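Quick one: structure for this chain?
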Amino acid sequence: MKLTRGQSGQRGIPMPLWLQGVLESAQLAIIVAALMIVPVGAVYFSNGFGNQPFDSAARLAGQAWLLVHGVPLQISVATGASSAELHSGLLSLIPFGLTLIPFFFAWRAGRRLARASYTDQLWQALCGALLIYAALGFATGYICSDHNVSASLLMATLVPLIPVALGLVIGARREAGSWGRLIGVDTVERMARFSQRSRWAGSYLWSVVKAGFLAVIVLMGISALIFAVNLALHWADVVAVYQGLKTGPVGGAALTIAQLGYFPNLAVWTMAWSSGSGFAVGIGSSVGPLGTSVAPLPAIPLLGALPVGQLSWGVLALAVPVLAGLLAGWWFLREGENHFDEWLSIKVPQRWLSASLSTISLALLVGLGAGILAAVLAWLSGGSAGIGRLSEVGPQPLNTAFWVACEVALGVLIGSLVAPWLEGARQRAGLAEDFEPFEEAE
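Got it. Here's what it folds into:
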């Protein structure tokens, strides 16, 4: 067995990669569990759960751990005079702001495992990390399930691997610097084996995908800003709900942490709102840019920021996805990978016809990509918040995809027409600065 010399100068046996993956994964699970236990324990010791035993609070922390990792929970509540009458529902509304916690810790672990592995050995560390995390998820689902809240053992085993695996792979890729160093396959060399036309087609489609991604990122950024401004404008209503709950400092802090976890979800809902498709806060409700129609809502402070009634200015929000598409079309022109337009200009002698066809095709493709990504975000951000009316919360994925795709496509059309003029003005400004006469030395 080969012995190595560590930083201390002492010789020793190197740690197997699978064991290092196990330790990194266990450390990750313990850190996330501690972050769940601290607020739940603070509420418990401040008598926030009444006369509930300590094991109930411990199970609640484990259930929060599962929910943060994306595991849906089955809830059963006794109603009526007889406790035998149970109403059940599914809690699948995932707080993606808190899901980022295990993702970023896994990203850090992936970088550490990549530094400790050779190119053809990283799979050992990743397998060890994922196997132990699956085992911990199974154990948490088994121990923390009771007659009121339970989780499927299969879901508790497999679903937590999704954010962890993404974090491990992305972190390892970040440390390696390229997929070739990470998995031993040189993608550039493999692409060089394809014909020139195949490489041009691939470059065009990849640029279209990036343009659609850029449109959604811009749309999400503006939507998050709209949400922040709306929250500031309705801050008095939010504070009034806090005061009505009378949770105390510890309970208020725990409630605030839970609501912060749903901020990314609310940003996606705002994106759906600005597109015109809107979102639901309960069965039969509708929150859109032209008006809001909801039934009485539970006392959750953030829900106090919902716009109410008819909005005379709400139609202006429909311009946000169009603006995102305009920027995506401008970026695509600057990327310089419009090989489909070059091919059409050769096949179709009439330039006005080839340019029109390539621009329309570009708008449809970018809009389709943005719509698919928006549908995925809408599906992930929504779900069921429990029992009754709140079993339907969030935007409808297909409606959101349709509206975002149409508006982004319109923006790409406008951007493709305006971008040459903007680039010409930018280049003329740059030439004017380059040829500005120098002042003569005295």
